[in-house]
Design a protein that fits this description.
It contains 16 helices and 20 strands. The chain has 443 residues and is of the alpha+beta class. It has one domain. Helix 5 crosses helix 14 and helix 7 packs antiparallel against helix 8. The longest helix has 21 residues. It is globular. The two termini are 15 Å apart.
């Protein structure tokens, strides 16, 4: 099947054909890309932020990829199955007792029903090998991906039906707002949600600060006041959390101090422990999902059986999460000998910081791993996407991120990159839209 045959593909041609179509498009389709004029128009229409396009270009020059990524409908369904399998295990009392028993005290604090927004389930997909490599609980990029989806233009007829329908982006943005309101009401509040603080350290200096502006505008369009603030700008007084003279109802937490241990986060911590705000994402969600030690539990047959996980759920987890184990001194010699087949990650890491491919390790770094808290994960290769016809240097790696709330996938995006991890520093790389071959009837 070549590119000209794709538009004539029969309905329901099956998973293998769908996978083949996706691979063919990822290697040979160069005619679909982000329309710069449409991107500027989308920013102007949606953000109402003068200078935002210039800020994006300056701050995040490689945040939007040059090409989309094609994925079979069957693989997207399988990703959703993995999400549901993980969620079913996290809901088990035995799992929660074990994980929270080794977590920080604040992770055991009752979040009052809030589930946490923007879980990011990150997958590698190469050929038919799909692997959940990690879960994040403050996954960034959702609003940028919504913006990117508005700026896509198909330059050939075969690809046109694969693009998301016009209403999909608006539905996603509406779902984002509904998600925050759901967090508010799940915590027992009955009055309307009035004011959100988007909180991060020195937010104006953050790489994704332009996204904070997009969130602010989205909330305001839906009648919710929003401020972007450093935690030092918050005050805890009179039983409420304040930003200046305005009380805060809900904090959209973009901090990477997941346990709120920093002294500068004290007002936020006090307000959360007192139940005066809804904090989302919250420390308990990070402990239950994002601590990399959990991947070791989720890939251990004996421990899954002891928790009472059904065999079919075990099969999904064991087939789609690369085998993971906690690095210990007792296993050091074996793990060093096996290092070329492993990837090492800090248990509480984020953004690929201090993560290492085993075949790149030096003895000095290996000692740092042994002295720290790390897991070793079996390598699962990322996918590949050609962004131009001129040679192997134009072949980038990609991973897939499903944005998830309450166990349901809201949106799936890709990230294109070179190097050992995603980095948003690769020309032609960055966030990329995901087009499903399901629109062709390809499974």
């Amino acid at each position: 099947m070549d590119l000209l045959e794709i538009e004539d593909a029969p309905v329901s041609i099956g998973h293998e054909a769908g996978r083949h179509v996706a691979q063919l498009l990822n290697s040979d389709c160069f005619c679909t890309s982000t329309d710069d004029a449409a991107l500027r128009q989308a920013i102007s229409a949606e953000a109402n932020q003068p200078g935002l396009i210039e800020l994006l270009r300056e701050r995040c020059p490689y945040v939007f990829a040059a090409r989309p990524v094609f994925v079979s409908a069957g693989h997207l369904r399988r990703m959703a199955e993995v999400v549901r399998a993980v969620e079913s295990v996290v809901a088990l009392p035995g799992y929660r007792e074990e994980v929270l028993g080794r977590a920080t005290p604040i992770a055991r604090h009752d979040p009052q029903g809030a589930r946490s927004v923007f879980f990011g389930y990150d997958f590698h997909l190469a050929d038919d090998q799909l692997g959940l490599i990690e879960i994040n609980t403050n996954a960034g990029g959702a609003m940028l991906n919504a913006l990117l989806a508005r700026a896509q233009r198909a330059c050939c007829t075969p690809v046109e039906p694969l693009m998301p329908p016009a209403g999909a982006v608006r539905a996603f943005e509406d779902a984002i707002v509904a998600m925050f309101r759901s967090e508010w009401h799940a915590s027992g509040r009955t009055r309307p949600l009035r004011r959100i603080a988007i909180v991060d350290d020195a937010p104006r200096e953050q790489y994704l600060y332009p996204e904070f502006l997009l969130f602010q505008r989205l909330f305001e369009r839906h009648g919710i006041e929003a401020v972007i603030a450093d935690p030092s700008a918050l005050a805890w007084r009179g039983g409420r959390l304040w930003h200046g003279e305005e009380p805060i109802d809900l904090v959209y937490n973009r901090l990477t101090d997941f346990a709120l241990e920093s002294g500068g986060n004290a007002p936020l911590r006090e307000a959360y422990l007192a139940g005066a705000i809804v904090l989302t994402p919250h420390p308990q969600a990070h402990a239950l999902y994002a601590d990399k030690q959990n991947l070791a539990l989720l890939t251990d047959t004996a421990r899954l059986a002891a928790l009472g996980v059904p065999p079919d759920t075990q099969e999904i987890l064991l087939s789609h999460i690369p085998r993971t184990e906690v690095v210990t001194p007792q296993a050091a010699e074996r793990l060093w000998s096996e290092r070329r087949q492993l990837f090492f990650k800090p248990t509480a890491g984020f953004g690929s910081r201090a993560a290492y491919r085993g075949d790149k390790l030096t003895r000095r770094v290996w000692q740092e791993i042994l002295d720290g808290r790390y897991v070793a994960q079996a390598l699962r290769a990322p996918g590949q996407r050609s962004i131009g016809p001129d040679g192997p240097d134009q072949v980038l790696k990609f991973d897939l991120r499903s944005y998830v709330y309450d166990g349901a996938v809201q949106w799936t995006a890709a990230r294109l990159y070179q190097g050992q991890t995603t980095n948003f520093r690769t020309p032609g790389g960055g966030f990329a839209p995901v087009y499903s071959t399901g629109a062709l009837g390809a499974g």
